[in-house]
Design goal:
Length: 634
């Protein structure tokens, strides 16, 4: 059925628009329903004309402010409040003088027609005169009553106003936030630590500070052009980004380099061999007292906890990892102490893989010979003894479990890419730098562990020292993790998400849906992760359950419905009904250009525009040629 719209009232940027199904030629003829329009976007659903007018008045009174003018409005409101207080005070004083003068004349038995506004002042001024002395008591009592009664009434009225409770709707008052709400919370302000989350009224909406942001967006819904690339072209401090397909590096590395950032691309499976290098074992302490603890942390990342029936094998795999890595480190110590540092070199995961493969002879005998080297510590000997004491079949299964996550290191490119360091993970809060983790989609499965290890070690190393304890830690580091669940469960995120912000490490994970996060982390842990993200961006969902959940998150509003009954005579009645601010089907039909986000600092959800960086000169002007990356010698 065709709809006809008719603008009835314009109040600032808010418009009251009637909606009918037939043409109307005069505004006075409009009956039925109306909507409020804010900057060309419907702010409400259809409601009765009377309700729409009331809601418009409320918006104009409370929120009718252009973004960015909130300080001016607050000043105007304060000025009005102080002016009102001054008027009430003057009126109370004037009433007190008049009433006191009237009571003075009445108590003295004089004609009250002689009353003027300053009668009481004249009598009170004459109290010191001898001829007035017999009447002083009556004059004072007239003043007490004359001023006391207005003040008492004023106090009662003020108390009633203070104690009066706001009338609440039966089913809720959910509504979308306006530009004034966003401006009030500083979400149009720019800083080096701002995360871009959307666009409202033609202005970029940003979240400053240390709070986390999470984006739930199905595939091919514009998350790259709307969140990932805009933040890579905007965020001013250190950033680590999971860059599947390496498009983000190609588009944004040039601009970030031009801003004085050090740029690194870690692509351990690069077919063109162009990658910077990172050696996870280089962060193991040189001090033997701390070395085992550091190796155990890496072992836990490589061999995460599994089901109950896997406990033995995981425990034995971790023990084997300790045995092989301790051997490599202690052999390296021995080489350096004997003046022969050019032998083995810094231990690497590739070296661990090769050592565990043996020299072609009987593996158990080979490892037994290693365990008897004189430079080995008691910890290393114990780890070898634990492994070698197992029956041959069990020993073979332990080695199989141990080598499974290390099998990718048979690839010479990965081996070389993890052989030394071109950057340090401990520097991300000391200087401005950007690390792109570039992975081709066809390598995602085999790279899952190495990426998981990278982010696990990055978080672990940067949650040991608070910025207030070390003045060198002067920058924030944002972890922009596109396809967050593709790297599997990052155990340290599940445990550290509640305190990472205090170390100035910030999260921006991107998932396809809430159910996807549940599947990877489990419902309880995923709820904890989501709870610790202050701002949640929601794109139009595809799964019905997500649409239902999002609808509940946005809240409910109360609508008045007119009921007409026809019996002997026509009667009208009104009922209040609950309606979701956005129904599940409305969320699914939100379209490719809109998004909704919820921010814990604003009591109302925000419906705004998605960013399209390629349509915005602000971003396209920053697209510069990509940075050159050195080629591995493989």
């Amino acid at each position: 059925m065709q709809e006809y719209t008719h603008q009835l009232e314009l109040r600032g940027r808010f418009r009251l628009v009637a909606v009918t199904h037939e043409p109307v030629y005069a505004p006075g003829d409009v009956v039925g329903h109306a909507v409020i329009v804010d900057d060309g976007e419907r702010l409400t659903d259809l409601m009765s004309l009377a309700d729409a007018r009331r809601y418009l008045e409320e918006l104009v009174r409370e929120e009718g402010v252009e973004p960015g003018l909130e300080n001016e409005v607050n000043l105007r409101r304060k000025a009005k409040k102080y002016l009102l207080i001054a008027i009430i005070t003057l009126a109370t004083l004037l009433l007190g003088f008049v009433l006191s003068g009237y009571l003075t004349l009445l108590l003295l038995g004089l004609d009250t027609k002689l009353l003027t506004w300053n009668t009481y002042y004249q009598y009170f001024h004459a109290i010191g005169q001898p001829q007035v002395a017999p009447f002083v008591g009556k004059i004072k009592w007239a003043g007490y009553l004359g001023f006391g009664l207005p003040l008492l009434v004023l106090a009662i009225v003020g108390l009633v106003v203070l104690l009066k409770k706001d009338k609440r709707s039966l089913h809720g008052d959910a509504r979308f936030a306006t530009g004034a709400d966003l401006a009030k919370h500083g979400m149009f302000k720019k800083s080096g630590q701002s995360i871009v989350v959307g666009s409202h009224g033609g202005k970029l909406v940003r979240l400053d500070g240390q709070q986390f942001v999470i984006l739930a967006a199905p595939t091919r819904s514009g998350k790259g052009v709307g969140v990932v690339i805009p933040n890579l072209l905007e965020y001013g401090e250190s950033l680590v980004v999971l860059d599947i397909k390496q498009e983000n590096f190609d588009l944004t590395s040039g601009w970030r380099a031009s801003q004085g950032q050090e740029i690194y691309l870690f692509n351990p499976f690069a077919e063109d061999r162009r990658t910077h290098r990172w050696n996870p074992l280089s962060y193991v302490s040189d001090d033997p007292a701390f070395r085992v603890s550091d190796l155990m942390s890496i072992g836990a990342m490589l061999y995460p906890d599994g089901s109950e029936d896997q406990k033995f094998w995981i425990s034995q795999a971790r023990n084997a990892f300790i045995a092989f890595t301790l051997y490599l480190f202690e052999n390296w110590d021995d080489e350096r102490s004997s003046g022969f540092p050019g032998g083995q070199g810094t231990p690497t995961l590739g070296a661990v893989y090769r050592l565990s493969s043996g020299d072609g002879s009987d593996l158990k005998k080979f490892l037994k010979s290693l365990s008897e080297r004189p430079f080995l510590s008691s910890n290393a000997r114990s780890a070898f003894a634990n492994m070698l004491s197992q029956a041959d079949e069990t020993f073979a299964s332990i080695l199989g479990t141990f080598k499974e996550p290390l099998n990718p290191w048979i690839n010479p490119v990965l081996d070389k890419a993890t052989s030394t360091n071109d950057f340090l993970l401990t520097d991300v809060r000391k200087k401005k730098m950007t690390i792109y983790i570039g992975i081709q989609p066809n390598k995602l499965a085999e790279s899952r562990l190495i990426i998981n290890l990278f982010f696990s070690q990055l978080i672990n190393l940067n949650t040991k020292e608070l910025p207030k304890s070390n003045p060198d830690l002067k920058y924030q580091c944002l972890l922009l993790m596109d396809e967050f669940t593709s790297i599997g469960k990052v155990e340290i995120i599940a445990s550290a998400v509640s305190y990472m912000a205090g170390y100035n490490v910030r999260l921006l994970p991107i998932i396809q849906s809430m159910s996807q996060l549940d599947a990877t982390y489990g419902r309880e842990v995923s709820r904890t992760i989501i709870t610790n993200h202050a701002l949640q961006i929601l794109y139009a969902p595809r799964e019905q359950q997500d649409a239902n959940d999002y609808s509940d998150m946005l809240g409910y509003t109360t609508i008045r419905k007119k009921n007409v009954t026809h019996a002997r005579e026509k009667t009208h009645s009104f009922t209040e009904e609950r309606r979701a601010l956005m129904l599940p089907q409305e969320l699914k039909a939100m379209g490719p250009d809109k998004e909704v986000f919820l921010y814990e600092g604003i009591p109302h959800p925000v419906k705004c525009d998605k960013i399209r960086y390629y349509k915005d000169r602000y971003f396209t002007s920053r697209l510069l040629p990509k940075v050159d990356v050195p080629m591995l010698d493989v």
